[in-house]
Amino acid sequence: MTRVAVIGGGSMGRNHLRVLRDLAGVVLVAVADSDAPNAESLGRAYGIPHYTSHQELLASERVDAVTIAAPTTLHHPIAIDALAAGCHVLVEKPLAATVDEAEDLVKRAKAAGRILAAGHVERHNPAIRELKRRLKEGQAGRIYQLHTRRLGPFPERVRDVGVTLDLATHDVDVMRYLMESEVTRVFAETRREVHASREDIASALLSFAGGAIGLLDVSWLTPTKIRDVTVTGERGLFRAEYLTQDLYFYENAHAADSQWDHLQILRGVSEGAMTRYPIDRQEPLKLELQAFVAAVGGKGAEIVTGEDGVAALRLAHAILTSGTEMRPMDLLGGISSR
User: Fold this and answer.
1) pTM of the model
2) What whole-number distance in Å separates Cα of residue 103 and Cα of residue 121?
3) Within 10 A of 146 (CB to CB), how many other CB atoms are there?
4) Do the bridges between strand 213-219 and strand 201-208 make them parallel or antiparallel, or are there none, so unpaired?
5) How far is residue 234's CA from residue 212's CA, in Å, rounded to a whole number?
6) How far apart are CA 182 and CA 158, in angstroms?
7) Contact yes or no for 228/148 (Cβ under 8 A)
Protein backbone atom coordinates (compact mmCIF):
# COMPACT_ATOMS: atom_id res chain seq x y z
CA MET A 1 0.00 0.00 0.00
CA THR A 2 1.19 3.53 -0.85
CA ARG A 3 0.84 6.05 1.95
CA VAL A 4 -0.24 9.39 0.45
CA ALA A 5 -0.85 12.82 2.02
CA VAL A 6 -2.51 15.86 0.48
CA ILE A 7 -1.07 19.34 0.95
CA GLY A 8 -3.60 22.06 0.17
CA GLY A 9 -7.26 21.91 1.07
CA GLY A 10 -8.86 24.16 -1.51
CA SER A 11 -11.21 23.00 -4.27
CA MET A 12 -8.57 20.89 -6.04
CA GLY A 13 -7.13 19.52 -2.82
CA ARG A 14 -10.62 18.39 -1.81
CA ASN A 15 -10.89 16.52 -5.09
CA HIS A 16 -7.56 14.82 -4.42
CA LEU A 17 -8.77 13.74 -0.99
CA ARG A 18 -12.02 12.38 -2.40
CA VAL A 19 -10.31 10.33 -5.10
CA LEU A 20 -7.39 9.10 -3.00
CA ARG A 21 -9.69 7.92 -0.20
CA ASP A 22 -11.29 5.37 -2.55
CA LEU A 23 -8.25 4.52 -4.67
CA ALA A 24 -7.09 0.90 -4.56
CA GLY A 25 -3.62 0.46 -3.14
CA VAL A 26 -3.66 3.81 -1.30
CA VAL A 27 -3.73 4.70 2.36
CA LEU A 28 -4.78 8.34 2.79
CA VAL A 29 -2.50 9.44 5.63
CA ALA A 30 -3.11 13.11 6.39
CA VAL A 31 -4.00 16.55 5.06
CA ALA A 32 -2.36 19.94 5.56
CA ASP A 33 -3.86 23.36 4.96
CA SER A 34 -2.80 26.71 6.39
CA ASP A 35 -6.42 27.56 7.24
CA ALA A 36 -6.92 25.88 10.63
CA PRO A 37 -10.74 25.51 10.51
CA ASN A 38 -10.55 24.12 6.97
CA ALA A 39 -7.78 21.68 7.90
CA GLU A 40 -9.76 20.51 10.93
CA SER A 41 -12.94 20.11 8.87
CA LEU A 42 -11.16 18.03 6.22
CA GLY A 43 -9.41 15.89 8.79
CA ARG A 44 -12.71 15.17 10.49
CA ALA A 45 -14.50 14.46 7.19
CA TYR A 46 -11.90 11.92 6.07
CA GLY A 47 -10.96 10.55 9.48
CA ILE A 48 -7.29 11.46 9.12
CA PRO A 49 -4.82 13.67 11.01
CA HIS A 50 -4.80 17.31 9.94
CA TYR A 51 -2.08 19.93 10.09
CA THR A 52 -1.78 23.64 9.40
CA SER A 53 1.89 23.18 8.44
CA HIS A 54 3.10 20.85 5.72
CA GLN A 55 6.47 20.67 7.50
CA GLU A 56 4.75 19.33 10.62
CA LEU A 57 2.85 16.78 8.55
CA LEU A 58 6.05 15.55 6.89
CA ALA A 59 7.85 15.34 10.25
CA SER A 60 4.99 13.59 12.05
CA GLU A 61 3.66 11.08 9.52
CA ARG A 62 5.16 8.21 7.54
CA VAL A 63 4.43 9.27 3.96
CA ASP A 64 5.48 7.67 0.66
CA ALA A 65 4.02 10.31 -1.62
CA VAL A 66 2.28 13.67 -1.50
CA THR A 67 0.04 15.57 -3.85
CA ILE A 68 0.37 19.35 -3.72
CA ALA A 69 -2.69 21.47 -4.49
CA ALA A 70 -1.62 24.71 -2.84
CA PRO A 71 -1.43 28.17 -4.45
CA THR A 72 1.08 28.27 -7.31
CA THR A 73 3.57 30.49 -5.50
CA LEU A 74 3.88 27.80 -2.80
CA HIS A 75 4.49 24.85 -5.13
CA HIS A 76 8.26 25.24 -5.15
CA PRO A 77 8.95 25.48 -1.41
CA ILE A 78 6.44 22.77 -0.49
CA ALA A 79 7.78 20.37 -3.13
CA ILE A 80 11.35 21.01 -1.95
CA ASP A 81 10.38 20.00 1.59
CA ALA A 82 8.48 16.92 0.39
CA LEU A 83 11.37 15.71 -1.76
CA ALA A 84 13.80 16.33 1.10
CA ALA A 85 11.55 14.18 3.30
CA GLY A 86 11.91 11.32 0.80
CA CYS A 87 8.46 11.62 -0.78
CA HIS A 88 7.43 11.13 -4.35
CA VAL A 89 5.57 14.25 -5.44
CA LEU A 90 2.70 15.20 -7.73
CA VAL A 91 2.28 18.97 -8.11
CA GLU A 92 -0.87 20.48 -9.56
CA LYS A 93 -0.22 22.55 -12.66
CA PRO A 94 1.56 24.80 -13.16
CA LEU A 95 4.55 22.94 -11.73
CA ALA A 96 5.86 26.18 -10.20
CA ALA A 97 5.51 29.93 -10.54
CA THR A 98 8.65 30.35 -12.66
CA VAL A 99 10.65 28.26 -15.09
CA ASP A 100 13.72 28.44 -12.84
CA GLU A 101 11.74 27.06 -9.91
CA ALA A 102 10.29 24.26 -12.05
CA GLU A 103 13.72 23.28 -13.36
CA ASP A 104 15.04 23.27 -9.81
CA LEU A 105 12.35 20.79 -8.78
CA VAL A 106 13.25 18.47 -11.65
CA LYS A 107 16.92 18.54 -10.60
CA ARG A 108 16.07 17.91 -6.95
CA ALA A 109 13.78 14.99 -7.79
CA LYS A 110 16.47 13.37 -9.92
CA ALA A 111 19.07 13.83 -7.20
CA ALA A 112 16.71 12.33 -4.63
CA GLY A 113 15.70 9.45 -6.88
CA ARG A 114 12.05 10.38 -6.51
CA ILE A 115 9.20 10.74 -8.99
CA LEU A 116 8.08 14.27 -9.80
CA ALA A 117 4.77 14.39 -11.67
CA ALA A 118 2.95 17.45 -12.99
CA GLY A 119 -0.81 17.59 -12.50
CA HIS A 120 -1.83 18.21 -16.11
CA VAL A 121 -5.06 16.30 -15.72
CA GLU A 122 -6.31 16.73 -19.31
CA ARG A 123 -3.62 14.33 -20.53
CA HIS A 124 -5.64 11.65 -18.77
CA ASN A 125 -8.98 12.62 -20.32
CA PRO A 126 -10.20 9.49 -22.15
CA ALA A 127 -11.27 11.55 -25.20
CA ILE A 128 -7.78 13.04 -25.50
CA ARG A 129 -6.16 9.64 -25.08
CA GLU A 130 -8.33 8.21 -27.86
CA LEU A 131 -7.62 11.23 -30.07
CA LYS A 132 -3.90 10.72 -29.51
CA ARG A 133 -4.17 7.05 -30.47
CA ARG A 134 -5.99 7.82 -33.70
CA LEU A 135 -3.61 10.61 -34.68
CA LYS A 136 -0.66 8.31 -34.05
CA GLU A 137 -2.27 5.71 -36.33
CA GLY A 138 -2.42 8.36 -39.06
CA GLN A 139 -6.19 8.64 -39.31
CA ALA A 140 -5.98 12.41 -39.86
CA GLY A 141 -2.99 12.19 -42.20
CA ARG A 142 -0.59 15.11 -42.07
CA ILE A 143 -1.74 17.58 -39.43
CA TYR A 144 -2.27 21.17 -40.52
CA GLN A 145 -3.70 22.89 -37.44
CA LEU A 146 -4.75 22.46 -33.81
CA HIS A 147 -7.21 24.80 -32.11
CA THR A 148 -7.86 24.69 -28.37
CA ARG A 149 -10.53 26.63 -26.48
CA ARG A 150 -10.70 26.82 -22.70
CA LEU A 151 -13.23 29.50 -21.82
CA GLY A 152 -15.39 30.16 -18.80
CA PRO A 153 -16.52 32.56 -16.08
CA PHE A 154 -14.09 34.34 -13.78
CA PRO A 155 -13.01 31.94 -10.98
CA GLU A 156 -13.08 33.37 -7.48
CA ARG A 157 -10.53 30.77 -6.37
CA VAL A 158 -7.64 32.10 -8.50
CA ARG A 159 -5.76 35.16 -7.34
CA ASP A 160 -2.04 34.44 -7.64
CA VAL A 161 -1.82 33.80 -11.41
CA GLY A 162 -3.54 35.00 -14.57
CA VAL A 163 -5.50 33.00 -17.10
CA THR A 164 -2.39 31.94 -19.03
CA LEU A 165 -0.69 30.10 -16.18
CA ASP A 166 -4.00 28.79 -14.86
CA LEU A 167 -5.61 27.59 -18.10
CA ALA A 168 -3.22 27.79 -21.07
CA THR A 169 -0.77 25.45 -19.35
CA HIS A 170 -3.36 22.68 -19.89
CA ASP A 171 -3.59 23.32 -23.59
CA VAL A 172 0.06 23.80 -24.49
CA ASP A 173 0.72 20.50 -22.74
CA VAL A 174 -2.07 18.76 -24.68
CA MET A 175 -0.78 20.25 -27.95
CA ARG A 176 2.74 18.93 -27.30
CA TYR A 177 1.31 15.56 -26.34
CA LEU A 178 -0.79 15.26 -29.50
CA MET A 179 1.85 16.59 -31.89
CA GLU A 180 4.95 14.98 -30.36
CA SER A 181 6.65 18.13 -31.64
CA GLU A 182 8.01 21.28 -30.04
CA VAL A 183 6.92 24.88 -30.58
CA THR A 184 9.39 27.08 -32.43
CA ARG A 185 7.52 30.40 -32.50
CA VAL A 186 4.80 32.11 -30.45
CA PHE A 187 2.79 35.26 -30.98
CA ALA A 188 0.13 36.23 -28.47
CA GLU A 189 -2.30 38.94 -27.45
CA THR A 190 -3.33 39.26 -23.79
CA ARG A 191 -5.73 41.61 -22.03
CA ARG A 192 -6.83 42.43 -18.48
CA GLU A 193 -10.51 43.32 -18.21
CA VAL A 194 -11.82 42.02 -14.86
CA HIS A 195 -8.87 40.67 -12.88
CA ALA A 196 -7.33 43.18 -10.47
CA SER A 197 -3.77 42.72 -11.65
CA ARG A 198 -3.35 39.93 -14.22
CA GLU A 199 -4.49 39.00 -17.71
CA ASP A 200 -7.87 37.31 -17.96
CA ILE A 201 -8.02 36.67 -21.72
CA ALA A 202 -5.31 35.45 -24.08
CA SER A 203 -5.05 34.25 -27.66
CA ALA A 204 -1.88 32.74 -29.08
CA LEU A 205 -0.55 31.48 -32.38
CA LEU A 206 2.03 28.70 -32.11
CA SER A 207 4.25 27.27 -34.86
CA PHE A 208 5.35 23.65 -34.43
CA ALA A 209 8.62 22.22 -35.69
CA GLY A 210 6.70 19.72 -37.79
CA GLY A 211 4.90 22.51 -39.67
CA ALA A 212 1.52 22.53 -37.95
CA ILE A 213 -0.10 25.70 -36.62
CA GLY A 214 -1.54 25.88 -33.13
CA LEU A 215 -4.30 28.31 -32.12
CA LEU A 216 -4.98 28.76 -28.42
CA ASP A 217 -7.82 30.70 -26.77
CA VAL A 218 -8.22 31.01 -23.01
CA SER A 219 -10.57 33.31 -21.17
CA TRP A 220 -12.17 34.04 -17.81
CA LEU A 221 -14.67 36.38 -19.49
CA THR A 222 -17.03 33.82 -21.01
CA PRO A 223 -20.33 33.18 -19.16
CA THR A 224 -20.36 29.49 -20.08
CA LYS A 225 -17.66 26.83 -20.00
CA ILE A 226 -16.22 25.73 -23.34
CA ARG A 227 -13.48 23.12 -23.35
CA ASP A 228 -12.53 21.59 -26.68
CA VAL A 229 -9.75 20.91 -29.16
CA THR A 230 -9.95 20.45 -32.92
CA VAL A 231 -7.25 18.89 -35.06
CA THR A 232 -7.38 19.49 -38.81
CA GLY A 233 -5.47 17.16 -41.10
CA GLU A 234 -5.37 15.90 -44.68
CA ARG A 235 -8.08 13.32 -44.13
CA GLY A 236 -10.47 15.29 -41.97
CA LEU A 237 -11.05 17.05 -38.67
CA PHE A 238 -11.19 15.65 -35.15
CA ARG A 239 -13.08 17.44 -32.39
CA ALA A 240 -12.70 16.39 -28.78
CA GLU A 241 -14.93 17.74 -26.00
CA TYR A 242 -13.19 17.70 -22.63
CA LEU A 243 -16.29 18.10 -20.45
CA THR A 244 -18.46 15.44 -22.10
CA GLN A 245 -15.53 13.27 -23.25
CA ASP A 246 -16.94 13.08 -26.76
CA LEU A 247 -14.77 12.55 -29.84
CA TYR A 248 -15.93 13.26 -33.40
CA PHE A 249 -14.30 12.84 -36.79
CA TYR A 250 -15.47 14.88 -39.81
CA GLU A 251 -14.18 13.13 -42.88
CA ASN A 252 -12.70 14.89 -45.89
CA ALA A 253 -14.55 13.18 -48.73
CA HIS A 254 -11.71 13.84 -51.17
CA ALA A 255 -9.28 12.00 -48.91
CA ALA A 256 -11.75 9.17 -48.35
CA ASP A 257 -11.84 8.45 -52.10
CA SER A 258 -10.51 4.93 -52.68
CA GLN A 259 -8.07 6.27 -55.28
CA TRP A 260 -6.34 8.53 -52.76
CA ASP A 261 -3.45 7.34 -50.64
CA HIS A 262 -0.61 8.91 -48.71
CA LEU A 263 1.68 8.89 -51.75
CA GLN A 264 -0.62 11.12 -53.76
CA ILE A 265 -1.32 14.83 -53.50
CA LEU A 266 -4.52 15.90 -51.82
CA ARG A 267 -6.33 17.99 -54.43
CA GLY A 268 -9.31 19.24 -52.49
CA VAL A 269 -11.47 19.26 -49.42
CA SER A 270 -15.17 18.46 -49.26
CA GLU A 271 -17.65 17.39 -46.59
CA GLY A 272 -17.81 13.70 -45.85
CA ALA A 273 -19.25 11.47 -43.16
CA MET A 274 -19.23 12.39 -39.46
CA THR A 275 -18.41 9.69 -36.90
CA ARG A 276 -18.85 9.89 -33.14
CA TYR A 277 -16.58 7.41 -31.43
CA PRO A 278 -17.61 5.53 -28.29
CA ILE A 279 -15.50 6.58 -25.31
CA ASP A 280 -15.21 4.77 -22.00
CA ARG A 281 -15.86 7.83 -19.85
CA GLN A 282 -13.82 8.03 -16.66
CA GLU A 283 -12.79 10.76 -14.25
CA PRO A 284 -9.44 12.16 -15.50
CA LEU A 285 -8.26 13.01 -11.98
CA LYS A 286 -8.79 9.42 -10.87
CA LEU A 287 -6.81 8.17 -13.86
CA GLU A 288 -4.05 10.70 -13.13
CA LEU A 289 -3.73 9.71 -9.48
CA GLN A 290 -3.89 6.01 -10.36
CA ALA A 291 -1.00 6.51 -12.78
CA PHE A 292 0.99 8.43 -10.17
CA VAL A 293 0.50 5.77 -7.51
CA ALA A 294 1.37 3.03 -10.00
CA ALA A 295 4.56 4.87 -10.97
CA VAL A 296 5.46 5.25 -7.30
CA GLY A 297 5.02 1.50 -7.02
CA GLY A 298 7.44 0.95 -9.90
CA LYS A 299 4.82 -0.19 -12.39
CA GLY A 300 5.94 2.15 -15.17
CA ALA A 301 2.62 3.95 -15.61
CA GLU A 302 2.41 6.91 -17.97
CA ILE A 303 2.58 10.15 -16.00
CA VAL A 304 3.09 13.77 -17.00
CA THR A 305 6.71 14.19 -15.99
CA GLY A 306 8.39 17.11 -14.32
CA GLU A 307 10.12 17.81 -17.62
CA ASP A 308 6.73 18.04 -19.31
CA GLY A 309 5.64 20.46 -16.62
CA VAL A 310 8.70 22.62 -17.27
CA ALA A 311 8.01 22.65 -21.01
CA ALA A 312 4.39 23.73 -20.50
CA LEU A 313 5.47 26.46 -18.11
CA ARG A 314 8.08 27.75 -20.56
CA LEU A 315 5.47 28.00 -23.27
CA ALA A 316 3.02 29.75 -20.97
CA HIS A 317 5.64 32.31 -20.03
CA ALA A 318 6.51 32.80 -23.72
CA ILE A 319 2.82 33.56 -24.34
CA LEU A 320 2.84 36.05 -21.47
CA THR A 321 6.02 37.73 -22.72
CA SER A 322 4.72 37.95 -26.27
CA GLY A 323 1.42 39.41 -25.11
CA THR A 324 3.03 41.89 -22.75
CA GLU A 325 5.78 43.04 -25.12
CA MET A 326 3.59 42.76 -28.23
CA ARG A 327 6.17 40.86 -30.24
CA PRO A 328 6.66 37.32 -31.53
CA MET A 329 8.88 34.94 -29.60
CA ASP A 330 11.30 32.79 -31.60
CA LEU A 331 11.91 29.72 -29.52
CA LEU A 332 15.18 28.36 -30.82
CA GLY A 333 15.92 24.81 -29.77
CA GLY A 334 12.22 24.09 -29.31
CA ILE A 335 11.24 26.13 -26.27
CA SER A 336 12.63 29.42 -25.04
CA SER A 337 14.08 29.56 -21.53
CA ARG A 338 12.93 33.15 -21.10
Assistant:
1) 0.92
2) 20
3) 24
4) antiparallel
5) 12
6) 29
7) yes
